[in-house]
Amino acid sequence: MTSSPQQDFVLKTIKSRDVHFVRFWFTDVLGLMKSFAVIPSELEGAFADGMGFDGSCIEGFCCTQESDMLAFPDASTFQVLPWRPESNAVARMFCDIRTPDGRPFEGDPRQVLARAVDKARDRGYVFNVGPELEFYYFKDAGGTEVLDRGGYFDLTSLDYASDLRRDTVLTLEKMGIPVEYSHHENGPSQHEIDLRFADALSMADAVMTYKLAVKEIALKHGVYASFMPKPLAGAPGSGMHVHQSLFDLDGRNAFFDPDDPQGYRLSKVAKHYIAGLLKYAPEFCAVTNQYVNSYKRLVSGGEAPTYLSWASRNRSTLVRIPGYRPSREDACRIELRSPDPAANPYLAFAVMLAAGLQGIEDELELQEPTEDQDLFALSRQQLREQGIETLPESLGEAVELFAESELMRETLGDHIHSYLVAAKRAEWNEYQGNVSAWERERYLAVL
C-alpha cells in the first residue's frame, strides 16, 4: 500500500501529538457540518479505500436504497483541534465523498467547487477569494439578548467580546488559517473576522473551520455565536462579503490593468467577470442567500445591497472595487456584497466563479458604474424606474429564478440543483403558511 508524503506526515504527527481520534469532516448540501470519528489505526486504510458511512442520513445526499458512501480524507487538510485537550488529542481532515465504485459523489458540495476550480484552471486561471464573515454573540441559543451595545470598531467596555474574538483568532492561526483583521461591527454584539485571501477550495474549508471555531470558543466563554443572516429586527444583518480575483498560472493578477481608461485599474477580463456576476446574481441568489431569513437582510433601505450595480467608492452597490492600495497588482480584486454567512461556501464560491467565467466567455459588456447615488435611499420601485434591476425580494422568487437557470444546473449538477429547488420550495411554502406575530399585532384587533 503506497502513501503520499502528506499522508506520511499525518501518520507521524498523530503519533507525536498524541492524537487518539481523527474527525472526518464534510458538509451536507446546505453547508451544515457533518462528522464522524476514526481511530488512528484505521487511517492508512481510509486513505487507500475510504471509510464507509450511511449517506441516507445526510441532507441532500441520497435515498435509503442508495445509501452506501465512502469518505476519503484529504491529508492536506489535517489539523489538530486546539479547543480539545492536548493529551488524547483530536484532529480533523476534510473529506471527499465517493460512491462504492469510486466515482465522485454528485451530491458532495466540496467536489462541486473542485470541479469549478478545475474548469477555471483549464482556462488558465486560479480563483482566489477572501471573505468577510459577520456574526452575533448572544447570551444563549434560546434568545437574542446581546452582550454589548457597541458599534463599528469600538474598543471600549462596550466591546465585551474582545477576548472572544482574540481567542478565536488565535485558534484559527493555530490551525493554519491566517486572519487579516477582526473588529466590532455596526450592530450591538455584532462582530467580524476577515480571512486572508487564498485559493477557493482552501478558503471554503477555512470558512467551515472558522464558523465552527467561532461557535466553539463562544461556548467556552458561556455564550452563543450565530451566523443567522438577520437575527434582530432594527439592527444590521450579517453578511459575507466575498473579495475575489483571478490570477493566471504564472501568478499574475488577471484583473489588474494600470492603463484602464476608466481609471479603475481593471482589465477587460475583470470587467467581463463583473458583468457575469451582475447578470447571474439573481439566478445564484438562492445559493448565496439560501434561507427565508436571508431576504430580511436584503431589503430596501437596509445596509445590504440588492441592486445590480457596481462602483468603487459607493458601498451601496452590489459589486465594489476596493481601493485601499490601488497601485498594487496583488491587491486588485472585486467584492461581491450580497452573500450571507449562512451560505454553503463550497456552492457559493462555485456559482460566483461560474457566473464570472461565463461573463468572460461571452465577453459581456459591463454597464456604467454608479458612483454618486445612494442606492440604499431608493425603493425597489424607484430603482426599476431608473432601469436598475434588483436581486429577488424573497426566497420564493429566488428559487424560481434558480430553477430555470441552465448555468446553475450545469455548475451544481442535476443532483444538487434539483435537491435545492425542491428543498427551498418546501421551505418557502412552509413559511408562507406561517402566521407571524407581526400579522397578529397588525390585523387581529382591527379586522
TrEMBL record:
One of its GO terms (biological process) is glutamine biosynthetic process. InterPro entries: Gln_synt_N, Gln_synt_N_sf, Gln_synth/guanido_kin_cat_dom, Gln_synth_cat_dom, Gln_synth_gly_rich_site. Its cofactor is Mg(2+). Coiled coil: none annotated. GO terms for molecular function: ATP binding; glutamine synthetase activity. PANTHER family: GAMMA-GLUTAMYLPUTRESCINE SYNTHETASE, TYPE-1 GLUTAMINE SYNTHETASE 2. This is Glutamine synthetase. It comes from Enteroscipio rubneri.
